[in-house]
Amino acid sequence: MTASKTNLKRILLKLSGESFKGNRGYGIDPEAVDSIAAQIKLMRDSDVEIGVVVGGGNIWRGSAAENEGMDRVAADYAGMLATVINALSLQDRLERIHGVDTRTQTGINVQEVAEPYIRRRAVRHLEKGRVVIFAAGIGNPYMTTDTAAALRAVEIEADVLLMAKYSVDGIYDTDPNIDSQSTKYDFISYQDAIEKRLGVMDTTALSICMENDLPIRVFDITNSENLVRIINGESIGSLVSESD
């Protein structure tokens, strides 16, 4: 499938850590990363400016480490480092395999491998057609990568926040992997998503999107055509906004 010209000028793509592990139970699956990189390449070919926020749950989960007795702040910083590993993996695939000029910016200082996050520099990279990967969240513990995605999307003035899920094709009233009778929402308002606690993203992230009228589209990243279909204007997955 090819991407056509689109009304979307700039998007923020949020990739969960699970997107990187593919069929593996843990770590990074090169084929899964290459599939994501290929989809991003197709979006760039349609002149969409792309920012990407990556999670790290395929390598490290701070909440799980905390439950096992680790200090929460230390656990969260370890999680930030996991996102840097994923970011570098995606950057390598984009540049080396698909020829897409890419920059990684981080919320914590790891200057040997990535730039520090500077909003004006990030926007300039986007304007020059580079994909910008944002790693290490916002650089603070107690903040999820969902919150980082919402904040970075607002800061770079993205038209939409695309929430890529692993093997879940949208928002449901219950977990579709557990409840076969769960109902999918094609559209839901910010307020309803917050009040119903549907697990779209954390409340802080949803509130940021609501306050800045930033639409969120939740979709399944494992379908290799979904990103291009979204760019082509199809109503894939579920939409969260003030109105549909």
CATH architecture: 3-Layer(aba) Sandwich
Arithmetic mean pLDDT = 93
What count of domains describes the coordinates?
Answer: 1
Overall geometry: globular
The biggest beta sheet reads: 9 strands, mixed
With strands numbered from the N-terminus, the spatial order across the biggest sheet is 4-3-5-2-1-6-10-11-9
Q: What's the end-to-end separation, in Å?
A: 26 Å
Q: Report the radius of gyration as a whole number of Å.
A: 17 Å
Helix amount: 25-40%
CATH superfamily: Acetylglutamate kinase-like
CATH topology group: Carbamate kinase
| Quantity of strands, as a count | 11
Runs in which pLDDT lies below 50 for 5 or more consecutive residues are none
| CATH class assignment | Alpha Beta
Structural class: alpha/beta
Contiguous helical run count? 9
> What fraction strand?
15-25%
Order of helices and strands: EHHEHHEEHEHEEEEHHEHE
Description:
By secondary structure, this protein is of the alpha/beta class. The chain has a single domain, classed as 3-Layer(aba) Sandwich (Carbamate kinase). The chain is built from nine helices and eleven strands. The strands form two sheets. It has a nine-stranded mixed beta sheet, sandwiched between helices. Helix 6 (145-155) runs parallel beside helix 8 (203-211) and helix 7 packs antiparallel against helix 8 (203-211). The two termini are 26 Å apart.
